[in-house]
Amino acid sequence: MEHVNIEKNLLLRAAAGHEESFTQLFFLYRHKLYSFLLRLTESPEMTEDVIQDVFLKLWKDRENLVNIEQFGGYIYRMAQHQALNAFRRMAKETLILAELTRVTNGAAPADAADNLSVREVREKLQYALDHLPPKQKLVYTLSREQGLKHDEIARQLNISPSTVNNHMIAALRTIRQQLGPHLHSITGASCLLMIIDGFR
After folding, report:
1. Which residues, including other chains, have CB under 8 Å from residue 199's CB and lie 6 or more apart?
2. What are phi and psi of 177, to 5 degrees?
């Protein structure tokens, strides 16, 4: 009962904009959420990202914290939902980057404007790849350019599949940040546009 009262008090104060109370809520649930999410994602990096997303959303919508009856159950459901969204984003990013690799590695552009766009994207993609940490670059190359599965990469590099997954997540994030403003410029690649439309 005392725990419930403390939590309700923290929620009331956080809803009023009290940052210290919100920080206390964060530390109250962070380790529990981390263990829960790590079982779902098998990726420490993705787990940390999801936790940050969860608490960022809670803070942005903090006025509604007072309306939550069972905060523990609520935050676990929210974390699970955010993890599923993260998996969907990663799947779409993987499709986009796979298509970008295909387009920039020799697929003929539809017209002169596309030729310029593809060249620009190729340069950005190569820049992003060149500046990846060595392990991330190697994992990305084995996966995207040689078509190896994560368990095959793990065996070849003598690391765990979850480590391969972590490297891929980090690499995809870096590449997405580099290419983000340029993804929509390849107007003539219909297949790529279809994928990008689904990514929005």
Report:
1. 92, 93, 96
2. -65, -35
The dihedral of CA 7, 10, 15, 21: what is its sign?
Answer: negative
pLDDT by 10-residue block (mean), the chain, 200 residues = 74 91 92 91 83 91 90 93 82 63 53 54 80 90 82 88 82 77 47 34
Domains and CATH numbers, the chain: 2-86 (1.10.1740.10), 90-199 (1.10.10.10)
Q: What residue has token string 């009962």?
A: 1
Using left for φ > 0, alpha for ψ between -120 and 50, and beta otherwise, residue 124 falls in alpha
DSSP 16-30: TT-HHHHHHHHHHHH
Per the confidence metrics, is the pTM higher than 0.70? no
Q: Which three-class secondary structure state does DSSP give residue 148? A: coil
Half-sphere exposure of 13 (CA within 13 A, CB side): 14
50 φψ region: left (φ > 0), alpha (ψ -120 to 50), beta (else) = alpha
